[in-house]
Amino acid sequence: QVQLVESGVGLVQAGDSLRLSCAASGRTFSVPYMGWFRQAPGKEREFVAATNWSGGSTYYTDSVKGRFTISRDNAKNTVYLQMNSLKPEDTAVYYCAAAGILDPGRVGLGSSYNYWGQGTQVTVSS
Known about the structure:
With 126 residues, the chain is an all-beta fold. Helix content is 0%, strand content 50%. The protein is built from no helices and 11 strands. The protein has strands at residues 2-7, 10-13, 18-26, 33-39, 46-51, 58-60, 68-73, 78-83, 92-99, 115-116, 120-125. The strands form 2 sheets. Strands 2, 4, 5, 6, 9, 10 and 11 form a 7-stranded mixed beta sheet that branches. A 4-stranded antiparallel beta sheet has the order 1-3-8-7, with no helix packed on it. A hairpin with a 4-residue loop joins strand 7 (68-73) and strand 8 (78-83). The protein is globular and about 40 Å long. The chain starts with a strand and ends with a strand.
């Protein structure tokens, strides 16, 4: 089993930056892929970003490319999401997710992930 705990809840203004953290515990070696998803009110959950174990491969949804950066510190079993130039449309509950064997072509699918955090609220005011 793997437990994921997000932190970094924030109320920020448009244009600000915020960093989310996700601390993993348990059998972390079994989940080389880590990702972030988000769900805005009234909308479906959507993929944001993901990375592999080494951090050498990263994946982003188009709407956050150039603004968000995913990274990880395996010594701390933590993955980060640095969010810059935040927009009101980035407002959502952000979820950390972990996956074991993962086809990179399916990295954006929630069904590819085995474990989920409880979510953390990010609100961006205009």
